[in-house]
Amino acid sequence: MVASQGRVVLITGASSGIGRACAQLLSERGHTVYGTSRQPLTEAPKGWHWLELDVTRDESVRRAVDAVLAAEGRIDVVVNNAGYALAGSLEDTSIEEARQQFETNLLGVLRVCKAVLPSMRERRTGLLIHISSLGGAVGLPFQGLYSASKFALEGLTESLRQEVAPFGIQATLVQPGDVHTRITENRVLASQSGPGSAYRAPFETTLKTIEADERDGVPPEDVARTVLELLEHGSVRVRYSVGKLVQRAAVMAKWMLPSRAFEALVMSLYGLSRD
Ligand SMILES: NC(=O)c1ccc[n+]([C@@H]2O[C@H](COP(=O)([O-])OP(=O)(O)OC[C@H]3O[C@@H](n4cnc5c(N)ncnc54)[C@H](OP(=O)(O)O)[C@@H]3O)[C@@H](O)[C@H]2O)c1
Q1: The domain spanning residue 94 has which CATH number?
Q2: Domain count, the chain
Q3: CA of 39, closest atom in ligand 1
Q4: How far apart are CA 217 and CA 182, in angstroms?
Q5: Model's pTM, two decimal places?
Q6: Residue 75 Cβ contacting ligand 1 at under 6 Å
Q7: Using a 6 Å cutoff on CB, does residue 39 contact ligand 1?
Q8: Residue 32 CB–ligand 1 contact under 6 Å
């Protein structure tokens, strides 16, 4: 178990949205925060340190982790948050686009875990907080690879928990519903999803709903408060959901409704039907 006060925290994807809100809140609460991203910040961070880190590059991850260990002697908590959303029908998504989605959202988390675990094991303490998504619990239409990357993150984290527990290390998942961040502007559209696509009309309808939901989402500070609670809590469960009650309830409905009824419900939320 890590000391409850003044923890050393490494956050990926801290240049905007959820990661930035986490960096701000955790540093205000007296924790030593290293927030990271590929691009430098547009304005200087207040009360936390920024480091360059591209989760898709081994050397970049190694350099940032070594820099924190050299400066602080330890990393108590990692918030694996960096990620982006790829949208488009699965048929219109190239294998390379799919690979890039997994490279960031799944293998980026694995890279950071592999870099920090040796020092955590040595100290027999540590907490890994993985930002998943409600899309990691429900397969979302036209966000198939995004959902797949978050489903994979859920599996990775469930397995990881069992492997690292004997070393005193904990891992947990946070599943936000829609959050108002730059995820909307940063969304990557599958290159074949343009005018020639057979899926164009339903994709456009769905994308409009996705974007409107995100703009109407909860503020990233709501997710940061959950992350803070987990960090200051002694023992963490496998997963926590954050966001609008209706979206969190939709996940529960998956286990309560007959599968085709649940699927029809999800489709209707995105303006889709079977015919
Ligand atoms: N917003 C939502 O509705 C929502 C819902 C559920 C889950 N999430 C998850 O929350 C996490 C944060 O997303 P957000 O909503 O805060 O989006 P955001 O505002 O677009 O922020 C994404 C962050 O990830 C960083 N990033 C992207 N690719 C990276 C890479 N290869 N290496 C390092 N950093 C990288 C970005 O910085 P650089 O581009 O400078 O590197 C940025 O700081 C993601 O994992 C996302 O899937 C978001």
Answers
A1: 3.40.50.720
A2: 1
A3: 40
A4: 12
A5: 0.97
A6: no
A7: yes
A8: no
